[in-house]
From TrEMBL:
<dbReference type="GO" id="GO:0003824">
    <property type="term" value="F:catalytic activity"/>
</dbReference>
<dbReference type="InterPro" id="IPR016193">
    <property type="entry name" value="Cytidine_deaminase-like"/>
</dbReference>
<dbReference type="InterPro" id="IPR002125">
    <property type="entry name" value="CMP_dCMP_dom"/>
</dbReference>
<feature type="domain" description="CMP/dCMP-type deaminase">
    <location>
        <begin position="4"/>
        <end position="121"/>
    </location>
</feature>
<dbReference type="Pfam" id="PF00383">
    <property type="entry name" value="dCMP_cyt_deam_1"/>
</dbReference>
<protein>
    <submittedName>
        <fullName>Nucleoside deaminase</fullName>
    </submittedName>
</protein>
Length: 142
């Protein structure tokens, strides 16, 4: 469920998406609001201008939050974004410890707008060499 305050922040994210598009990048924008509702940071997509396929606004904000915010503050934030975060961004948002994401356009709705834009899955093979990798990893997380 979203609130009128959420809608106001989403409109700001949509304006950031328009800024990205006007600058020649894909039209995606996001902002991060703190626990008290103040905008802590905002970003727009720069994948083309930066020549960086990972320069999604959600990822940039989550990385910023992980660097600049303590865990308690991050856990009280809300990310507002023009489109539902992709799998890459979802993972980074989770690792950054952000509390909530509110988006305007779902990934399914995006695919309706730009059909045929998916890439084929990359084959993955494993696990393999468990004993060798276990020797390196075991004990690190204790």
């Amino acid at each position: 469920m979203t609130t009128p305050d959420d809608h106001a922040f989403l409109r700001q994210a949509i304006a950031l998406a328009a800024k990205a598009r006007a600058g020649g990048d894909p039209p995606f924008g996001s902002l991060l609001a703190g626990p008290d509702g103040t905008v802590l940071a905002e970003e727009h997509n720069t994948t083309l201008t930066d020549k960086d396929i990972t320069a999604h606004p959600e990822l940039k904000l989550a990385r910023w939050a992980a660097r600049e915010l303590d865990a308690a503050t991050a856990a009280g934030t809300t990310m507002y974004t023009s489109c539902e975060p992709c799998g890459m961004c979802q993972a980074v948002i989770q690792w950054a410890g952000l509390r909530r994401v509110v988006y305007a356009l779902s990934n399914d709705q995006l695919l309706d707008i730009r059909p045929g834009s998916g890439r084929p899955p990359v084959p993955q093979h494993g696990p393999a060499l468990l004993d060798e990798v276990r020797a390196v990893v075991e004990g690190y997380y204790r």
